[in-house]
Amino acid sequence: MPDQTIPKISEDTLIARLRARDTSAVSLLYDMYSAALYGVIVRIVKTEEVAEDVLQEAFVKIWNSFDKYDAQKGRLFTWMLNVSRNLAIDKIRSLEYRMKVSTDTLSPAHQASFADIAFNTDHIGVREAVEKLSPEQKQIIDLMYFKGLTQSEIAEEHNIPLGTVKTRARSAVKVLSKLFKGSV
Amino acid sequence: MSNEEYLASGILELYAAGGLTEAERKEVERRAAESPEICAALDEACAAMEAYANLHAIAPRPELKQQILGKLQTHPSLDEGPSWDTTSLPAEETSPYKWMFAASVVLFIISGLLSYRFYTKWQQAEQRLAKAVASEQLMAQNVRHDAQHTQQLEQTLAIMRNSAFRAVALNGVKAHPEASLYVYWNPEEKAVYVDRMQLPAPPSNMQYQLWALDKGTPQDAGLIPTSFEEAGMLKMKTVAAAQAFAITLEPKGGSENPTLDNLMAMGSVEI
After folding, report:
1. What is the pTM of this model?
2. Which residues on A lie below 8 Å from B56 (Cβ)?
């Protein structure tokens, strides 16, 4: 859960300091975004041990290729999330590739821990958000956001027409957008 | 596609929710950079998903922060950017196998060298053992031979020291002056021994025979074996009474009566 005591500075200031290779800005960047990124990474890779590795790799990559971030093209968090998500997906694909047999036997344990995380919805905001979304909308959003599947992968693996996937994703984001308007 | 159509297609929401491929994302970013309208709509969708992520945030272990920040400060910056490639991970993972392969090759070579070394050592040991066994056998043979010799000498000594034995010197007859031998006779035990034979080698079909002469009658006192090697005294047949001993050359196997033509040596028992 996000810590209320996290110092908030404006995104522009933070970006400027990071561009100037100000290492103290990385500490702020970490405080502001690590929990949100970690929440997504844990849900994709399903084990905290791997998630910690991915978070570390993500911050190294964010820091080293910060000059590639273009504020004109989108939000800082979105860019950081894309970097983290790519690393997390690479990780599970390579893990799946390497330990195909052993994951088959391990998967019940993983699913158990994943279920704990997935339904850790004590936060009042989460409950509200989940109540606003239909189960179909929530399924599509969580498959994309927390499992790292693309629209066509969802259509194929879950036997849902691609058009339906698009529609549900769009309406879900709209619902969330209305819900959070002005809060971020 | 016009901006309106693009906005209505739902692609910006798919972008925000993470449902696009890398290539599709690049295209959305390109359109957003071109149009402020699209950029604003994309920002709104992304902000909604950012809030959704914040709701699901999980704080990592507090220790992880120092670990990660430490990594950043020690990590060489910027120029490394393009080399950040996940393909470098599998390469690292194959290294244990390379290492294991190299180790197994080294172990194989070492075991080969050791095998050769132990084989040659074993061969040398075998040779030395064979020599030792041979010399031990020779030694045992010598010891046996010496023991036999000692026994014969002891017997000889015992006979010579025993006053009951009479020593009879048999001297060669005129035809064979070189022939001579000694007979030791114990009248009490009737034992007869022959010693210090000086006789020419008999023809292959003949053999020497000893006779005891009692009141002029010759009595067979035994054959001298052709293969006899003089080491001690030769034990002959028992003789109860005799005044003289003689030795003749007889056909192999001996004769009942001595062939006097072939008399070699004779001697009287001294009273």
Report:
1. 0.52
2. 36, 39-40, 43, 126, 146
